[in-house]
Amino acid sequence: SVAFVIWGSQYLLELRTLAADGQIRVDQRVPFSSSRASWGLAVKPHEAAPIDEICQILQARTAPEDPVFVAAANGPLIMFLAERDTPTRIHIPLGPLTDQEQTEVIAALERTHTKLVIMDGRFDDARLMWQYLLANFGLDQEIGEYSIFSRRERRS
């Protein structure tokens, strides 16, 4: 059987398993290295390293006031740990994005001249977003399940 303990945040969901011997086993969680790690946020070890690396990249390549768009299941966590804001009211993940929502996101990325976009592959069906990304951004690197895109400089 499985029991859940929730510690006030979706990122502190702790999975406890009742083993065959009657002992409760808690899955291992590790903290992050960001300045907000003191908040007690922790995830499974295989999830922490890519998120930490992405947060370091965001902090190194953007100013605190620069918006960053993160379309990933852990997007809100990455934004919080990197101390960056999103340029759009659309908070990811919301499931499949309608054409209207994709158009809204694209308009926000243009309006704010967002420099970096992080995607985790959950939006393969977001046709308009992918067309926009491929035309205006280049793939910088992939870290685990995440792809980091940076805005191409416009030629005058």
What is this entry, summarized?
By secondary structure, the chain is of the alpha+beta class. The chain contains four helices and nine strands.
What key phrases describe this protein's structure?
disordered N terminus, 156 residues, alpha+beta, 4-stranded mixed β-sheet
Q: What is the CA–CA distance across the termini?
A: 63 Å
Oligomer: single chain
Determine the structural class based on helices, strands and strand pairing.
Answer: alpha+beta
Rg, alpha carbons: 18 Å
User: Low-confidence spans: pLDDT under 50, at least 5 residues?
Assistant: 1-15
Plain-language structure description:
This protein has 156 residues and is α+β, with helices and mostly antiparallel strands. The chain has 4 helices and 9 strands. The protein has helices at 45-61, 75-82, 99-112, 127-136, and strands at residues 2-6, 13-18, 24-26, 30-31, 42-43, 69-71, 116-119, 137-143, 146-151. It has a 4-stranded mixed β-sheet with strand order 6-7-9-8. It has a 3-stranded antiparallel β-sheet with strand order 1-2-3, with no helix packed on it. Strands 4-5 form a two-stranded antiparallel ribbon. A hairpin with a 5-residue loop joins strand 2 (13-18) and strand 3. Helix 1 (45-61) crosses helix 2 and helix 3 (99-112) runs parallel beside helix 4 (127-136). It is globular and about 65 Å long. Residues 1-15 have low confidence and may be disordered.
